[in-house]
Design a protein that fits this description.
Layout lengths: L1 H21 L6 H11 L9 H12 L5 H8 L9 H14 L1 E6 L5 H12 L6 E5 L5 H8 L1 E4 L2 E4 L1 H11 L5 E6 L6 H14 L6 E2 L2 E2 L6 E8 L10 H7 L1 E5 L3 H11 L13 H18 L22 H12 L13 H8 L9 H12 L2 H6 L1 H38 L4 H20 L5 H35 L7 H13 L1 H23 L3
Parallel strand pairs: 1-8, 1-9, 2-5, 5-8
Antiparallel strand pairs: 3-4, 6-7
Helix pairs in contact: 2-12, 2-19, 3-5, 4-6, 5-6, 7-9, 9-10, 11-12, 12-13, 17-18, 17-19, 18-19, 19-20, 19-21, 20-21
């Protein structure tokens, strides 16, 4: 009898547990990862003075002065972007020469491209700027390519610019074409130059002069993605005017803005009651807009949306997204109900509405017309639920094993039992392992995303320390180029070490300090 009641009790307990787990909505991995992301360390353009100087020297072949950096990046302000983002696009434009940046309005692309162009050009006089305007195609052609005036050919600004490029082959020239989507590129360049851009070997003359596209000429175009754009750029355009780079709305730059809003700059952003819901809403609303409407309707981080952070509730923020989408007159208007999943998640600590097992199974059956069969096959559903729970626990174990590996790696980094290169290789091994698990569907996409966020936060300090070491070695290499370490170069090494002290830890600081002392003793003039 006792065994019978014991079995009944366990069965009832199992049913209760099953119902509880099956009716519990899961937490959005994006919500879980938001806290660490708000407080993560980022190397912004404003902080990367040494890295920026090295990048400048790489491009121009001479050391950068403070005036070089200030006039190119800080006029009138230094953009709030990560240095890695600026470095990547700078190197791409230098290498490929022609580039098209595509983004929604408010993504900060025009500002980024302005600073990027200034950074690449030899100086401001080596830049040519074009601002596209609707219905001015022929006027632009006459102004920049040329026209006949009273039977005499008058050469345009772009062809003059080409001649300056050819006359100064060791210098860099940049043309910035803003809002290129507002005009027809074929009309702007004209038939001959348009074909020349397609085939650089073809012989073309304009105004009696042979056209040569200079090797030191760079063209950066900005095409904002809007539904009513006059021109829809295609592969045929990109083949001529440059490789396409898509700039997506960036929550990291929104975080930079919010950090500036804190009255107490020492307070972690995650401790602000409004920051996490605000950035989460920004990401999820843009995701919903992309999926239900059009990617070109999304909202950039530097739009007026950011000013709604000071509001006391979410309603103005959600209303902003609705009004923004509807301003493009979509076929089906957006309503607040479209953003209901966000409201639910924010009010319930990141839980996704309708994400529990029962809801998802019911929805799937309803969509497939199997609702009646569902009632008949209730027992099968229970078995499926238990199986799903088993798989979930199995996946949880797999993720836990990966997390243990990351924590072990981080402890080895802190204790200095392994060098940076070994740790970097093991970091790559763990990443590949998680990629393999996701591809084999041993873990879900959401679980992999959660792990990547956790992994990123843990390894960021390692990457920062490694980057600091690389910059330190580059600086030593430059300082010892002539085989002698001058007092000025010695002082520069010490200043660099003091700047990175807070990012590398006491052990690395002392190691670098000893290395400087050794180098001074070996290579000093004295």
């Amino acid at each position: 009898m006792k065994k019978k009641y014991g079995f009944l009790f366990l069965s009832l307990l199992g049913i209760v547990v099953f119902i509880y787990l099956g009716s519990s909505n899961r937490v959005d991995p994006a919500w879980i990862g938001m806290g660490p992301k708000l407080d993560a360390q980022y190397l912004t353009l404003a902080k990367a003075k040494d890295s920026t100087a090295i990048l400048f020297e790489e491009i121009h072949g001479r050391p950068a002065t403070q005036k070089d950096i200030r006039t190119r990046l800080a006029n009138p302000f230094i953009p709030s972007v990560e240095f890695s983002k600026f470095q990547y696009y700078t190197q791409e434009v230098v290498q490929n020469r022609f580039a098209v940046f595509s983004s929604v309005i408010g993504s900060g692309t025009s500002t980024l491209i302005d600073r990027l162009a200034r950074f690449i050009a030899t100086d401001e006089s080596h830049m040519l700027r074009v601002f596209g305007a609707v219905n001015f195609d022929m006027e632009y052609h006459r102004q920049f390519i040329g026209e006949e005036v009273n039977g005499v050919w008058k050469q345009g600004l772009l062809l003059d610019f080409f001649e300056r490029c050819l006359a100064n082959p060791d210098e860099k020239f940049v043309m910035v074409f803003n809002d290129i989507h507002k005009i027809e590129p074929e009309t702007f360049f004209g038939q001959k130059l348009w074909y020349k851009l397609y085939d650089r070997d073809v012989h073309a003359q304009i105004g009696g002069k042979t056209i040569v596209i200079p090797p030191n000429f760079h063209m950066i175009s900005v095409a904002h993605v809007i539904p009513n754009a006059k021109v829809l750029l295609t592969e045929d355009h990109y083949r001529r005017i440059g490789k396409l780079y898509r700039i997506e709305p960036d929550d990291t730059e929104l975080i930079f803005y919010l950090r500036g809003k804190l009255s107490d700059k020492q307070q972690p952003l995650s401790e602000s009651a409004k920051a996490k819901p605000f950035v989460y809403t920004f990401n999820r609303a843009n995701q919903i807009i992309s999926e239900k409407f059009n990617k070109s309707y999304t909202v950039g981080q530097w739009s007026n949306l950011r000013k709604l952070y000071d509001k006391n509730d979410m309603n103005p923020l959600l209303d902003y997204f609705v009004a923004h989408v509807n301003s493009f007159a979509p076929r089906n208007e957006m309503v607040r109900a479209d953003l209901q999943p966000i409201e639910y998640a924010v009010k319930n600590e990141g839980k996704l509405s309708g994400s529990n097992f029962f809801s998802t199974q019911f929805k799937n059956l309803e969509e497939k017309g199997f609702l009646t069969e569902f009632i008949v096959g209730l027992s099968f559903i229970i078995i499926s639920a238990l199986s799903s729970f088993f798989i979930f626990k199995r996946r949880e174990k797999i993720i836990s094993e990966q997390i243990v590996m990351v924590n072990k790696l981080f402890r080895e980094f802190e204790s200095k039992t392994k060098d940076y290169d070994t740790i970097s290789n093991e970091i790559d091994d763990i990443k590949h392992s998680v990629d393999h698990l996701a591809l084999k569907k041993k873990i879900s996409y959401e679980e992999a995303t959660f792990f990547y966020q956790y992994f990123y936060d843990k390894t960021r300090r390692i990457e920062i320390a490694k980057e600091a070491r690389n910059h330190f070695e580059d600086l030593i290499y430059v300082s010892l180029d002539d085989g002698v370490l001058s007092d000025k170069e010695h002082q520069k090494l010490l200043e660099f070490l003091n700047r990175i002290k807070t990012r590398i830890g006491e052990t690395d600081y002392q190691h670098f300090k000893d290395e400087i002392d050794r180098i001074q003793a070996t290579y000093s003039k004295n």
